[in-house]
Amino acid sequence: MPIQQSDVLYTAVATAEGGRDGRVATDDGRLDVVVNPPQAMGGSGAGTNPEQLFAAGYSACFQGALGVVARQEGADLTGSTVTAKVGLGKNGDGFGIIVEISADIPKVDRGTARSLIEKAHEVCPYSKATRGNITVTLV
Length: 139
Prior knowledge:
32% of the residues lie in helices and 28% in strands. The chain contains three helices and six strands, in the order βββαββααβ. Helix 1 crosses helix 2 (110-123). The radius of gyration is 17 Å and the shape is globular. By secondary structure, it is of the alpha+beta class. The protein starts with 13 loop residues before the first strand and ends with a strand. The chain has two domains: 1-48, N-terminal domain of TfIIb; 49-139, K homology (KH) domain (GMP Synthetase, Chain A, domain 3). The strands form two sheets. The chain has a three-stranded antiparallel beta sheet, with no helix packed on it. Belongs to the OsmC/Ohr family. This is Organic hydroperoxide resistance protein.
């Protein structure tokens, strides 16, 4: 169910100039980065790119959701990591993205880790926002 504007607790604000070959900054100045297309796409690769920024946000958000689920389940997340791989490719409408989320949870067995990851995918705001729009693979 979508949230209502009255339910918003925080709003991040970022402004881009120059698109994929320019700059992105947040209104509070905490993030101010040069963006360039990666070398794999013919760019200079001198800066970051939208896919890296999305991967960073998704992995951090998913790790947070994993923490919520682990606390509910009494699971130990000590030393855990979440990695998001965001691929950009051509599709019928131009370009699209695909995501792979992998988690390393060393203090739990494989079955428990899989269950935690699947439950985190249900509650993670990024997962909710992308559900049905892009392919997300859980590893």
